[in-house]
Amino acid sequence: MKPRSAALVLVGLLALSLNLRAALSAYPPLLGDVREALGISAGTAGAAQTGAILAMAAGSLIGPRVSARFGAVRALGGSVALVALGSLVRGVPALVALFAGTLVIGLGIGVAGVLLTAVVKDRLAARAGAVSGAYVVAMMLGSTVVSALAVPVAVALGGWSYSLALWAVPALLAVAVWAAIMRGDAGPHTGGATARRRLPWRDPFARLAATYQSGVSLTVYGSLTWVAPAYVDRGWSPAAAGLLISVWSVAQMPSALVVPSLAERSGRFRRWALLMAACTVVAVLGMVLLPEPPLVGAWLWVALIGVGVGAGFPLGLGVIAHRTPDPAASAATSGLALGVGYTVAGLGPLLMGVLVDLTHGYAAALLVLLGAAVLQIVAAIGIGDHRREPAAATT
Which of residues 18 and 123 earns the better pLDDT score? Predict the structure, then answer.
């Protein structure tokens, strides 16, 4: 591949990755304002984030077929266009628009998440490891910036809906980059083999991988949605609580880059996965039993969760890459793991919101994250450290 074309694809991947969590990260710091303006319960507010995650699950499951039909490059361009469209729809300050826009955003993120690896392998295979690390960091950077700026932007623009809509701008910039990439694309030459693989529902390893990703995803989206409101309830300002999510995101970056590499070199997936789950256990118990410890305050707990989930997601995808025999099997197993993981995670914000309403507090809701850590622990023990290559059914 020509260096200039490879550079354009790299820019496109990073621009897309900046949007894979940003739009959803803008919502939690504004959740209190949204509830007040629309007159909705915590459960209803959480259902919006739940809908996004379930839409991500649907996108993950259909992503390989979309790639086979249009090509991975065109599918990725379309997916980030959906993120932009959904963000614009959320600019209307109404419950229907909030839900509709959030669902569209989730669908775009789900499709993109499955296909990023396919494009990296096809266009930037010589630097696949470095590029993968770069787009994970870009994804977390987008989340960090948006969660920190969501409340100040809402104040500056005069409303929560305008703040949510503003994040269509970086998505539209990514659309422009992918439009340039698509002009040089030959069509569905990437990802075609994906459609020849059924999702490996009966494979024991695939089920364990799905269980592991379920725990990680539930922790990510449960904490993303409800940790900030929990501290607002304790008297923190929405802006300060938004900074908690920024710290959570920043803590993920070094973890995502370093821990999967250490696990790969040592061949000890189980050891590192259990250590990351232990970070979540300690953090959740800390938030429930000692929410603001002396000196370090709540920042320690959100940083620990960030470290755990930052490495947890790439660890789960990395073990799939090492245990599957070919790219098509890897894509099928990843699609299953992410699809099931997002489905389970989609129930998290809704369940946590319902628990907030029922208990008039946040302790019970935060303990849902403890259950997510248990899922990771059980799956990591079952997966173990030894390499195995499961066969995927063909159609």
Answer: 18
Say if residues 177 and 348 touch (Cβ distance below 8 Å). Answer: no
8 Å CB contact between 73 and 119: yes
Rg (CA), the chain: 20
Give kind and range of the element (H or E) at residue 171. helix 168-183
- Please state which of the ranges 135-144, 187-196, 356-365 shows the lowest mean pLDDT: 187-196
* CA distance readout (Å), 350 to 143, 175, 225, 281: 21, 31, 10, 21
Nearest to 164 by CA among 77, 52, 59: 52
Threshold 0.85, pTM exceeds: no
How many angstroms separate the Cα of 198 from the Cα of each of 61, 228, 392? Answer: 11, 39, 7
* pLDDT tier at 104, thresholds 50, 70, 90: very high
**Domains delineated in the chain:** 3-185+192-383 (1.20.1250.20)
Helix (H, G, I), strand (E, B) or coil at 200: coil
Residue 324 has φ and ψ, to the nearest 5°, of -105, 150
pLDDT at 193 over 60: no
Q: What is the identity of the amino acid at 14?
A: L
